[in-house]
Records
---
Amino acid sequence: MGKGPGLYSDIGKKARDLLYKDYQSDHKFIITTYSPTGVVITSSGTKKGDLFLADVNTQLKNKNITTDIKVDTNSNLFTTITIDEAAPGLKTIFSFRVPDQRSGKVELQYLHDYAGISSSVGLTANPIVNFSGVIGNNLVALGTDLSFDSKTGNFTKCNAGLSFSNADLIAALTLNDKGDTLSASYYHSVNPQSNTAVGAEVTHSFSTNENTITLGTQHALDPLTTVKARVNNFGKANALIQHEWRPKSTFTISGEVDTRAIEKSAKVGLALALKP
C-alpha cells in the first residue's frame, strides 16, 4: 500500500479492476513503438460488430512535462499536457479537443500523506466545475466527488465514498447518482505469490429497488498467465485468460455466456497488445 489516501477515483478501484478490467466482447489490438528520441507512438483499433474504430496516440516527454496527442477515426484531435511535480505533490493537466472549442479543461491534482484533491474547470464562459477530495491515510479514507454546472446553477454529480484497507483486504462503500445508488465492494488478496484474489460488488438502486451482485476471482497459472472469472445475479458469466508472451506484450481471450439463455451464442473477445 502507498502512503496517503490517494484520489477519490482510487476508492474501490482494486475491486473494480478485478471484476471488470480486461473483460470485453470486441476485437482489439494495440501496438506501441518507441523512437530513438524518446517519442512513444501507440496505435489501437477496435472492431465492434461491423464498426471499426481506430486511433493513434503520440507521447512526448521533456523533463516533468508530458504531451499526449491523439487522432481518431472521426478526425478528432485530443491533446493533453501534464506537468508533474510543479510543486511537491502537485500535478497540472491541461486538455482540449479539436474541433470542439468548448472542450478545454484545466485540472489540478494534489496528493498528501493525509489528503488527495482533484479539481477541474472547463475553459468556457459557463464552465462545469469538478471537485473531488479525500481525507484519511492508507488505512481509512473518506471522500466526496462533485460537479457543478455554472450555466444552470445545478449540481450534476454528487457522490461520496468510504474506504478501509489493510495488508490483504480492501472494502469500500460509495453513494452515487445524487444518493440514488449505493454500492459496497470487497477485495481480498488470498495468495500474493500466485496473484490469487477474490472480490465482490453489491449495488442497490433506490429508484428501481433493484440489486446487482457481482462476484469475481483471479489466479496466476504461472508468472506469465492469469485467469479471471466473474458472475452476477442476472446469470451473466464471464471468463478470460491473459498471457504475457513477451515482456509487456499480452494476448487476452475473454468470453461471456448468459446462463439464463444458454441457447444464445457466447460472446468472445480478443485483445492483443504489442510493446517492444
---
Amino acid sequence: MTFEEKPEGNGSLVDENQLDLGAKHQANGKPAASVRAKLPARQEAKAKCSLPRKSLSTYTWQEIQRHNQETDQWLVINRKVYDVTGWADRHPGGRLVLNHCAGEDATDVFRAMHPDPDIVRLYLKPLLIGELAPEEPNQERNKNSQLVEDFQELRRTLETLNMFNANLGFFFLHLAQVLILEALAWVIVWHFGSGWLITIFISFLLTVAQGISAKWWNNRHFQHHVKPNIYSKDPDIDVGPFFVIGDLQPVKYGKNKIKFINYEKQHLYFHVSWAPFLIPVYFNLDSILAMYRRRDWEDFAWVSTFYIRHFITFGPFYGIFGTMVLIYLVKLLESFWVAYVTQMSHIPMKMSTEENQDWFSSQVLTTCNVEQSFFNDWFTGHLNFQTEHHLFPTMPRHNYHKVAPLVKSLCAKHGLPYVNKPILKAFGDVIRALKKSGALWKEAYCMHPET
C-alpha cells in the first residue's frame, strides 16, 4: 500500500515567506513525549506495509461505484480499494460517514478527517482488497483532475509549513477565558445577589461553556463535514417537517402537498422555534438518547459534570429550581448563537442531492465566510472562516486566516466562488434564505392542485 509522501520543498503554490508561521511547535500541538509515544505505532505500520504481499486484484471505477450500499461498501484511497462493509460499525467516526462515501474516491476526505494517517494504516491494511486498474484515473471521471491535484499540492504545502500544528498558548488563553468568565459570574452573583437582571447578565458570561455529549456531536458533525448541504446525508439540514430549506426540498414538499405548517411564514417563526429550542431541547435530548443507546456511561459522566458544576457553584444562591432556570437561560442564549453562527455559512449556500463532487468543490460551494475582524474572530470562534474550516477540519483555527488567501487563489484559478461577507449581512441571509425557500414551497403547492 502506498501513500503520498510530503515534498521536500514548499511546493509551487506558495512561498513560505507569505505566511507568518510564528513559533514552532510539536505536531498537533502535543508535547514531545506524546509524539515519541506514537513512534512505535508508526514503525509498526511502516513495517507491516513493507511486507511482501500477493498481487492485488484490479477494478474499474464502474465496478467500484456499484458497491455503494449499506450492506456493500467499498472506498478508494490513494488508488487502493478497501471493503469497509464489515468494519463500518466499529469506525470511530461512525458508520454513516463511511456509507456516505461508499463507491467513491475518498482520498481527500480520508486525509482531511484523520490527523495521523500513519496510525490509521493499521486499520486499513486488513480491509485492502485491490487497486484501481492501471488505465483508470485517480478519481472518478466526472471530477476535475487538475483541481484535485492542485488542492492536494496545496495541502502538502500547508503540511510542510506546519499549518496543522497547534499553538498551545492560544488554546491555553481560550481555556483561561472560559474559567475567568465563569469565576466572574460567581463573583457577580455573590456580590450583587441573584436578581433577574444579574441572572440574565451572568447567563451571557456562562454561554462560553456547554454540556452535551462530545461523541454524539462528533458522530453528527463528521457527517456534516463529509457531505455538507447534501440532502439525506448532512444531518444539519435535516430540519423537516418543521422547515424546508434550499431550492429542492420546498418544491418537493409543495408538489406532494406536504404542509405540516405554513412554510411561507417559516422565516418569522424561526426565532421562536428553531433558535430557542435547538440546544435546550433537541440537542440535549438527542445526545442523552444517543448516550443511553450506546450505554456510554463514561460520556454520560463527563456531560453530567457540566450540570454538577453549575449546581455546586450557583445552587447556594438560586436553589435547585433557580439553578435549572439559569442553566436553561444559558442554553437558550447558546442556542441562538449556534443557530446563527453555524447556519449563516450554510443555509444561504447551495443544497443538493448527491453529486459526487471533488472534495474542494463540495466544500467551497456549500460554505461561505464572514469578514475577519478581532470581534468576528472572537464571537464566532473563528467559524467566520467556515470555508477553511471545512477544507481542513483538523487544522487549528488560529491558522485559518493564514491559509485563506491561498484557498481564495485556488478558487479563482478554477472559477469557483469564494464568498466572504459582513457579519450582519450573513445573519440577514439566514432569514432571507428561509423566506425564499418558503416562497418556493408556496408556489409549488399552489401550482399542483390535489387530485
---
Amino acid sequence: MAFSLCSTKTLLLLFLISAIPVAFIISSELAKPPTHVYHYHSSGFFRECAKWDDLNRRFLVSFMEGGIGEIAVPEDHGSSSEEAVLKEVTLVKDPALAGNSSLGIVVDRPRNRLLVAISDILGNKYNALAAYDLSTWDRLFLTTLDNEKAFADDVAVDAEGNAYVTDAKSNKIWKVGADGKFVSFIRNPLFIAKEWYKNLIGLNGIVYHPDGFLIVIHTFNGMLYKIDVTKEDHEVKLIKVAGGSLAFGDGLELLSPTKLVVAGNPSGRLLESLDGWETVSVVAKFKGPAHRLATAATVKDGRVYLNHMLGMGYPKKQHALVEAVFSI
C-alpha cells in the first residue's frame, strides 16, 4: 500500500505525536510544585536572567526583547495559604538599544548600579555593556564591545568595579573598566572546544570570586574555568569536575566561597570546592520545570531561586522563579 502524508492514519499519527509534548507541558503546569515558586505576570514570553535586589525587595529581570523589569515582593507575601501572582513592572526600555536583547545582569551594590549584557542574538552584529543607576534608572554608560560577530551573554563585576562579559560565540571575555571604558580581551586556547559543534554556544555563565578570580562555564562542552584577574596575563586554568557533567550549564551564582550553583539542564546543580577551585564536585542536583528552561540563579534570604526563561499563557505571560532545593 502506498504511503500517503495526507492519509487519515498519517494525520492521526502526527496529531498523537504532537499531543505528547503538549500533554506533558499541561500536566507539568497543573501539578503542584514540590518547592516554593514566585509566579509573576509579564508582557513578554522570554526572561533571560533574574537577580534578587535585597535592599529594594525585588527581583530584577532582563527582557529578551530588550529592557529591564522588576518584580516587587511585599513583606507579607506568602502569609496567606495561596500566594498572589506578582506583577512585572518595566524599569528600562532604552530606545538606543531597540532590536537588541538584554541578557545577563549583575547587581553592582557598591556603585548602586545594574550591569547588563546587550546582544543582537539573531545577527550577532551588535554587542554592548550597559550600566543603569539602581535608584533613578538613568543610563550611566553604554560601551560597544565588538564590531565582529559575537554574542555578549553574561556579566560579572569585581571588587574594583571592572566588568567581565562572556562572548558565547567567539569564546572570549571582554573586560570593561568601572568608568565604562573598554580595557582588554581575555582569550585562551582552553576556551575553544575541539569539536566545532560544541562551540555553537561557548563561554556563558560567569561569576567573580572574592579571592580575585572569575569562574566561567562553557555551555556545550561543560568545562569550568578559573581565571585569575589579579595577574596581568589573566591566568586561565581548567577546573577539574567530579561527580557529574556540567554540559548545558548556563547561569552561575556563588553561594559561598566554596559553593556554586549552575543553572541549566538539568535545572540546577550544586558544586563544592575544598581546594580553592582547583577541583570541584557536583554534590547535589535539583530538577524543576524542564519545559520552562532554567537560565539563571539568584539567592533570596539564603534560598536559591532559578529563573526560567519561558513564560506561559496569553495575553498575560506567567513566569516562574523556582526555589531550588538540592538533593544528592
